[in-house]
């Protein structure tokens, strides 16, 4: 990619909710407005990203203002970065973990319906985290047993997992979620269907931090599922990108 690359295709964006933050057209604007770490922004550049996509331009300010979000945007429009960038930015430096008066433990949780997807998110997260000492864990059989040691898991910043794996760890007493400040459900249409819903609900109710921020991302959100999603969110903003709108 070079400087002449056109921006990703523009989509129609609609928002619904109270006090919707202004969207931003450039990554630079996020940095100026929200004081994002220059390291995150330079890692973005490293990946060849020059302009935010529609969902990034609208979703990132909403998450940076600590609001709950339901984001609906077609496949391939960069939903992953729409939550990784603000979540990592809001968590601050990895070292702020130690100074935090709210204690230790996982601070951000990203749930996805399949191992492959969790793996992809993990990779994108690692790229964005380059140069910082973040502890980012892709939950698997192997990491689950490592994290059975509380002194190890207390140092983890971000966990990426499928629901089933995480519920097992919770039930085994191998994980606490009381310090989680950001929960993201990716591919929320699947996460909130009947297969995963009980597990997702169990996970969410273990996230007892009082001001926990929640966000759901999906390419589509059928009415029934959207109702479930909205009931989990607090004063949410809904962003819809593209043709799909009702
Ligand atoms: P979605 O989850 O909406 O299907 P992804 O987050 O998987 O989309 O992103 C799709 C592709 O677009 C990925 O290869 C990602 O690296 C790339 N991408 C994301 N944001 C941007 C951007 N702002 N500019 C260019 N490419 C981007
Ligand atoms: Mg995706």
From TrEMBL:
Q: List this protein's GO terms for biological process.
A: maturation of SSU-rRNA
Task: Name the domain of life.
Answer: Eukaryota
- What is the residue range of the signal peptide feature? none
Which GO molecular function annotations are given, in alphabetical order? ATP binding; hydrolase activity; RNA binding; RNA helicase activity
Q: What positions does the record give for the motif labelled Q motif?
A: 29-57
Domain named DEAD-box RNA helicase Q is located at: 29-57
Q: Which Gene Ontology terms of cellular component type are present?
A: cytosol; nucleus
Provide this UniProt record's keywords sorted from A to Z.
ATP-binding, Helicase, Hydrolase, Nucleotide-binding, Nucleus, Ribosome biogenesis, RNA-binding
Domain Helicase ATP-binding: where? Answer: 19-246, 60-239
Q: Where in the cell is it found?
A: Nucleus
Task: Give the record's family classification.
Answer: Belongs to the DEAD box helicase family. DDX52/ROK1 subfamily.
Protein name per its UniProtKB record: RNA helicase
- The organism encoding this protein is Postia placenta MAD-698-R-SB12
The upper taxonomy is: Eukaryota, Fungi, Dikarya, Basidiomycota, Agaricomycotina
Q: Which residues of the full protein are shown?
A: 94 to 339 of 564
């Amino acid at each position: 990619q070079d400087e002449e690359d056109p921006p990703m295709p523009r989509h129609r964006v609609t928002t619904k909710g109270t006090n919707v933050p202004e969207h931003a057209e450039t990554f630079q604007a996020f940095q100026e407005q929200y004081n994002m770490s220059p390291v995150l922004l330079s890692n973005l550049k490293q990946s060849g990203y020059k302009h935010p996509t529609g969902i990034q331009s609208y979703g990132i300010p909403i998450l940076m203002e600590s609001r709950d979000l339901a984001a609906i945007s077609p496949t391939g429009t960069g939903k992953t970065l729409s939550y990784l960038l603000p979540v990592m930015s809001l968590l601050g430096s990895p070292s702020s973990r130690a100074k935090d008066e709210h204690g230790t433990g996982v601070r951000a949780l990203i749930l996805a319906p399949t191992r492959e997807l969790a793996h992809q998110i993990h990779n994108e997260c690692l790229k964005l985290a380059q140069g910082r000492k973040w502890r980012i864990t892709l939950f698997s059989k192997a990491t689950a047993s490592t994290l059975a040691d509380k002194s190890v898991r207390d140092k983890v910043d971000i966990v990426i997992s499928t629901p089933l794996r995480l519920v097992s760890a919770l039930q085994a007493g191998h994980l606490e979620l009381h310090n989680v400040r950001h929960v993201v459900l990716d591919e929320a249409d699947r996460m909130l269907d009947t297969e995963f819903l009980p597990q997702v609900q169990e996970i969410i109710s273990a996230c007892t931090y009082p001001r926990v921020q929640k966000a759901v991302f999906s390419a589509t959100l059928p009415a029934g599922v959207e109702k479930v999603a909205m009931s989990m969110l607090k004063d949410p903003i809904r962003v819809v990108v593209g043709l799909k709108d009702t």
